[in-house]
Structure formats: structure tokens, C-alpha cells
């Protein structure tokens, strides 16, 4: 059975009449009679109006954040409203059209053979007072109406289903975002700590040049992680995973992060650590990240002098109580105020706060893995250590397919043997493969790469030769010095001898 708007109008006036009668009863009947009248009155109301309504408001509480329930219901109803509603609202999301039901529209939904009505409501308040907070004139909500006999089923099963389904739809169609943190100084009331743009990096695992076996392992690991909510809950671990990507510049660490984000359909939070004032701000940043996201800390060794800091923290502990003559108290405080410490970072990765929200990947990148403090990258914090290395033949084949749409070519053999001898980053290989003019054919591009590899080989040979010479030169110099020293000693001895003889 479906309840439409007109029917509700009638029920509304019936309720108003009952309320009037109830006010009369309260005023003129003695207290001992009122209890029994109350029971009968409720029965009467239920008889005439056995329907229950639940409203989900767009903004709840302090109105700063859209209600998650409202968003989920909006997503859930949008598919139904496309088929049913006469008035729809249109928008574009990620280059595709999105339709939702317009204000004051109704749609019906069916669940386990029972039909319900959902209505979209908009109320406009008249107050137009001056305020710093966002305009509060329009309030939107979704309202479900159902018979009281379905109360249990609706509240315990149906609404749960709607919210879950709506969230899934939202995740599938959402526009992914790339966030970066604003400098600590600019935080304030109503300002978010993150600013964002739409995430549009096109890198995928298919276009990522690396050993196919290693690539498959990483993809399997990611899939396992993203589906392991129950597993993590069972073993009592926060649902997150740490990756450490290390290797020389231009080997694809940033590209790999983009590929992971596209693979898992996650948002990316790129943390600029140098803009974070202290550990508290770092924690606040973490709390403001959403689920299904990657938190990236690039070039971790450059962002903070982590090893140095740890030593400093230890030194400070040792020096506790003693007065430091060279550092004034003021300077020390300033230093503490403006820096994130290693322990703050460790807390960020796996402290109690990091467990909130769930389903997050934390990725560190570095060019110098040896510089990092072992505590920062130990297993459990950084669960997988992935080395991104120079381009080998397998990686080259991916780039050739990607840039030139080539599976094989007579020059492949030469390139393979050159790549075995020479270290060239995928970034350099890719740059050489790119056509320099629109008319350049694949042969010319491969020729450019071969030439670059041969040049690199020649340079490496020259460098080795120079080093050898230097080594030889140094060796000779040392030999000459040693000889000179020996001669001097002999002469000195010769000078001493006559005296000794005289003695
Ligand atoms: N493994 C790779 N697969 C595909 N393209 C790559 C790969 N490595 C590098 N490239 C290409 O080289 C460019 C630079 O790579 P990227 O920025 O990912 O390197 P990086 O390892 O992050 O370097 P850095 O350490 O300097 O940050 C990319 O835009 C991409 O086009
Ligand atoms: Mg990078």
C-alpha cells in the first residue's frame, strides 16, 4: 500500500482536530480521569492514523557537514527517481550525467513485497539575519512514511539496506579527489585543513613499467587488503596498510601511487610535512581524512631530518636537568613548536588515532632508504617495502607498448643487451621513446633510445677509465711519497752515525 501526499493532508487535519480535543480534555477533566482518556485517545489516533514517518535532514547538528545518511539516501533514491519522478534535478559528475529527484517530489520503493513512499522536502525559513556561518535559509530532508506494523522491519532491516546500498553507489560514482594540507597557520574556524582538486592522474598498473611478477604481487596484496575488513576486525588490527616505495629519482614511485589510487578507487591525501607545525596538527590532519584513501608522505627523508631528530630527542632526555649553555630556552621552544618529531610521525602511522575511519593505505617514498630510521619502516608500520629500480627489458616492453603501441621490433634485441649493461631510469627511457615531432615513426623513436643508451654506455666507460686513472695516479703518488720518506730516513741515519761513532 502506498501513501500519497493528498492522503497525508487529510490525516494532518484529522490530527489537528484530535489535538484540539486533547487540549480541551487537559483543561476541563480531573487528573484521575486523564490517564484513562490518554490511553483511549492514543488508540483512537493509531486507528485513524497508523502511519509512521522518519525524516533524514541534510544537515544535522552544527550544520557544518552534510549528513552521511542523507547523502546515502540521495544516492539510493536517484536510481529510483530516474524511472519514476516527474521532476528531476540534473548535474554532471566526472563527465557523466547525474539525476536526482527534485524538491517536493515523491518516489515509491519496494522491499520484500512492501511498498514505501520517500518524499524530498525543502523548507525555507523566513529569517534573514546577518551571520558569518553558511546561509541557513533552505533546509532539505528525505522522509519515509510507512504503516506502524512494519516499524520493526523498516528500522532494523530496510533502512540499513538503503544506507549501505546508497554508500556503495556513492563510492562507485564519486569524483575522486587529490588533497593537500594547507599550512598550519591558516587553520581556523570554518576552514578545512585540506584543500583539494579532482584526481585525474591516468596512470594504471597496465601502464606502469616494472617486473610483471612484482606487479602482480602488489595488485594481489592490494585486493586482499581492500576486501579484508572482517579479517582485520577479527585479529584486532586497524584496517590500514603501510607501503614504502624506494629507489632513485624517476623510477616511478609517484606513478605507482597514482596507479594504486586508480586501481582501488581511493582518494589521495598528499601530506606536505614541512607545512605541519607540530604533532597535534599532524594528528588533526589524519582525523580529517576519509575512509578509502591513500595518505602519501613523499620524500620522507627530505621532509624531516628524522634520524637527526631522534638523536636530538635522545640527547635532550640525557641532558634533562642540566642547563644547556649554547641553546637559549626561547630558541628551544620555538624549535619544538614548529616541528613534527619522529615519535609524532610514528603515532600518526599507528597510534590510537590512526585506527579511526578505517581502510587506509599509508605510503612513504624515498630516494635514500638507508637514511630512514629503522623504527619508521619496520614491518607492521610499513608492511611492504617495494624497490623501484632502473629500467630492465620487461619494463621497457611495457613502455614501448604504452608510448609506441609496439610489441616487438628488430631493435628490441640491441636495446635489451644495452639495458643489461646500463642503468637508465624508466623516466629517461620514456622521454627518449616519446616522438619529438608528429611525423616521427617508431623506428626513429627506438633509434633515439638506442643512441641515448649507447651514449650513456660510452660515458660510463669514460668515467670508469678516469676513475681508474685517478686511482692509478693516487697509487703512484703514494708510492713516491713512501720512497721519499724512506730516503729521508736513510739520510738522517747517515747524519747521526758519525756522532754515534765518536761516542
Ligand atoms: N615505472 C614507470 N612506469 C611508467 N612510467 C614511468 C615509470 N617510472 C617513471 N615513469 C615516467 O617518468 C615520470 C617520472 O616518474 P615518477 O615521478 O613516478 O618518478 P619518481 O620515482 O616518483 O621520482 P622522484 O623520486 O624524483 O619523485 C613519470 O611521469 C612517468 O611518465
Ligand atoms: Mg616522486
TrEMBL record:
This is Uncharacterized protein.
Amino acid at each position: 500500500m502506498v501513501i500519497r501526499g493528498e492522503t497525508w493532508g487529510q490525516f494532518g487535519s484529522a490530527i489537528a482536530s484530535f489535538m484540539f480535543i486533547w487540549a480541551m480534555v487537559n483543561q476541563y477533566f480531573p487528573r484521575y480521569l486523564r490517564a484513562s482518556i490518554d490511553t483511549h485517545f492514543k488508540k483512537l489516533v493509531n486507528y485513524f492514523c497508523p502511519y509512521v514517518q522518519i525524516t533524514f535532514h541534510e544537515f544535522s547538528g552544527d550544520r557544518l557537514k552534510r549528513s552521511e545518511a542523507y547523502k546515502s539516501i540521495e544516492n539510493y533514491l536517484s536510481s529510483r527517481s530516474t524511472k519514476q519522478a516527474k521532476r528531476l534535478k540534473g548535474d554532471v559528475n566526472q563527465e557523466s550525467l547525474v539525476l536526482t529527484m527534485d524538491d517536493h517530489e515523491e518516489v515509491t520503493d519496494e522491499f520484500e513485497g512492501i511498498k514505501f513512499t520517500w518524499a524530498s522536502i525543502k523548507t525555507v525559513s523566513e529569517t534573514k539575519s546577518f551571520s558569518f556561518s553558511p546561509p541557513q535559509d533552505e533546509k532539505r530532508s528525505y522522509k519515509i512514511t510507512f504503516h506502524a506494523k512494519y516499524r520493526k522491519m523498516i528500522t532494523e532491516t530496510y533502512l540499513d539496506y538503503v544506507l549501505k546500498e546508497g554508500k556503495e553507489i556513492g563510492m562507485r560514482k564519486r569524483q575522486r579527489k587529490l588533497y593537500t594540507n594547507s599550512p598550519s597557520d591558516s587553520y581556523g574556524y570554518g576552514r578545512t585543513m585540506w584543500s583539494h582538486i579532482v584526481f585525474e592522474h591516468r596512470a594504471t598498473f597496465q601502464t606502469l613499467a616494472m617486473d610483471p611478477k612484482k606487479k602482480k604481487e602488489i595488485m594481489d596484496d592490494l585486493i586482499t587488503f581492500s576486501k579484508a575488513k572482517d579479517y582485520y576486525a577479527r585479529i584486532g588490527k586497524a584496517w590500514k596498510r603501510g607501503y614504502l616505495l624506494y629507489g632513485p629519482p624517476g623510477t616511478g614511485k609517484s606513478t605507482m601511487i597514482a596507479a594504486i589510487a586508480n586501481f582501488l578507487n581511493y582518494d589521495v591525501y598528499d601530506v606536505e610535512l614541512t607545512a605541519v607545525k607540530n604533532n597535534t596538527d599532524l594528528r588533526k590532519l589524519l582525523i580529517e581524512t576519509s575512509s578509502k584513501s591513500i595518505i602519501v608522505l613523499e620524500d620522507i627523508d627530505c621532509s624531516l631530518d628524522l634520524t637527526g631528530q631522534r638523536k636530538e630527542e635522545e640527547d635532550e632526555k640525557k641532558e634533562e636537568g642540566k642547563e644547556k649553555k649554547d641553546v637559549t630556552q626561547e630558541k628551544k621552544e620555538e624549535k619544538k613548536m614548529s616541528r613534527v618529531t619522529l615519535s609524532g610521525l610514528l603515532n600518526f602511522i599507528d597510534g590510537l588515532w590512526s585506527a579511526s575511519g578505517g581502510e587506509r593505505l599509508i605510503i612513504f617514498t624515498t630516494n635514500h632508504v638507508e637514511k630512514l630510521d629503522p623504527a619508521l619502516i619496520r614491518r607492521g608500520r610499513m608492511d611492504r617495502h617495494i624497490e623501484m629500480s632502473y629500467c630492465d627489458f620487461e619494463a621497457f616492453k611495457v613502455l614501448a607498448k604504452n608510448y609506441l603501441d609496439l610489441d616487438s621490433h628488430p631493435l628490441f634485441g640491441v636495446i635489451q643487451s644495452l639495458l643489461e649493461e646500463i642503468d637508465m631510469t624508466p623516466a629517461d627511457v620514456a622521454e627518449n621513446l616519446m616522438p619529438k615531432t608528429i611525423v616521427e615513426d617508431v623506428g626513429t623513436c627506438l633509434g633515439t633510445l638506442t643512441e641515448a643508451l649507447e651514449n650513456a654506455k660510452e660515458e660510463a666507460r669514460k668515467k670508469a677509465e678516469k676513475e681508474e686513472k685517478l686511482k692509478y695516479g693516487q697509487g703512484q703518488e703514494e708510492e713516491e711519497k713512501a720512497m721519499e720518506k724512506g730516503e729521508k730516513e736513510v739520510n738522517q741515519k747517515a747524519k747521526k752515525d758519525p756522532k754515534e761513532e765518536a761516542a
